[in-house]
Amino acid sequence: MDHLPVFLDVKGKKIIVDGGGTLAARRVERALDAGAMVHVYAEKLGEEFRELKNHPSLTHHTDAPQLPDFIGATVAYGATEDEERDRHLYDMANHNHVLANVADVTEYCDFITPSIIDRSPLVIAISSGGAAPIIARILRARIEAILPAAYGKLAAFSGRLRERVMTKLKTPESRRMFWENTIDGPVADKFLSGDPKAAKKQFLIELDAAALGQDVEKVGEVYLVGTGPGDPDLLTFRALHLMQRADVVLYDRLIGDGIINLVRRDAERVFVGKRPNDHAMEQQEISDLMVKLAKEGKRVLRLKGGDPFIFGRGGEELETLAAADVPFQVIPGITAASGCASYAGIPLTHRDHAQSCVFVTAHGKDGVLSLDWETMARPGQTVAIYMGRSSLDFLTEEFIRRGVDPNTPAAIVDNGTRPNQQVVKGTLSNLYEKAEAANLPGPALVIIGSVVDLSDTLNWYKNFETDKHTMSLSASVEL
What we know:
Elements: E1 14-18, H1 22-33, E2 37-41, E3 58-61, E4 73-78, H2 83-95, E5 99-102, E6 115-119, E7 122-126, H3 133-146, H4 151-160, H5 162-168, H6 172-183, H7 186-192, H8 196-211, E8 221-226, H9 237-243, E9 248-251, H10 257-260, E10 268-271, E11 274-275, E12 278-279, H11 283-295, E13 299-304, H12 314-323, E14 328-331, H13 336-343, E15 356-361, H14 373-376, E16 381-386, H15 392-401, E17 409-414, E18 422-427, H16 431-438, E19 444-448, H17 455-458, H18 460-478
Parallel strand pairs: 1-2, 1-4, 2-3, 4-5, 8-13, 8-14, 9-10, 9-13, 15-16
Antiparallel strand pairs: 6-7, 11-12, 16-19, 17-18, 17-19
Helix pairs in contact: 7-8, 11-12
């Protein structure tokens, strides 16, 4: 280890920042966030200081720092990118026994400024010792993606209750075990789901039980998570967090390996997918299974393609859970219409083409097609049809029979957002024949409206996939 990791308490203390550009602004921002009294030296402050320059703890000096300015300072930053001025700052800081850091010049650094993940009061610092700051920055981005923003509030919540734990539990071992169960159990789940009152109530119940040496009955919960149309990169941070906490996972056939592989490795996995006339489980069986597992005290992850509340039967499943008094959370996902259209370069609305968008499903509860054709046939809109592949012949004919122009542009997006995505475009009069010729495996989304014509210009994903493949080949050659 080349550097000693230290978090400095600079509340109310003097910090010097020399420079008025972007680098200086970032140093000033961090120092102000930590409660320091910051003195910044620059003839002019750049645009990056617009939100900072009126801060009550910031003093702006238009001249360069001089030796007396360092008296009483704790830290000095050189951020002018002027080698001679930065070296002079380092010499003056050393003369006054002030810790100095000059951006990107390791020989003028008494300490390294790390990449920061701020979930105050929880703060994570990542440093490569100045050797590879880009690696530190990339790691920071990855940790940001998996660490919920609410963890900082959870840390503050725990801190407010720390004295109670110290009073109730007398040994370090008992306190450690209690905190581990709290941060990785129902208390944290309730807090992170946005219910601090329930979290505090659960906390006190568990604390009293721990003080008496008793076990608390495990409380199960169901996470109803929308995984989007297929691309794992489209998952939300909240979805990823809960996927790592589940004990049991119930997933549909639309959930690909790229998403399943992000689930906690030791979680039990149960396939409950449905295909036309081939159901691994009936809908009520799935709902009943979730109730059973939750009643056993397990955290149940119900993964659904797209969004659970848009043709995902999420409402039906939650009705069963609510009737059984099973706690649940709902995490929305990008619905198929939005994801598939975006990856096909088809905007669902456009001022010159469509002022509204209608989402419909081609399958009713009993497999019966019952659609509001009067609404769907209106001009100046886009119609997105879920699960319409098997009924495409009927759908296109019915649109034409209802008076819609047979030449109206239409498309079917197969396996949207995935590497094997296919987009077949045509018109109402020929889309079915083109889809049949393409032998699309599904799942697929049908889009009808003049916005389809924009895809030739706006189809970014095809080029993006080609670029990714080329980059992959280049990387392989270099390796």
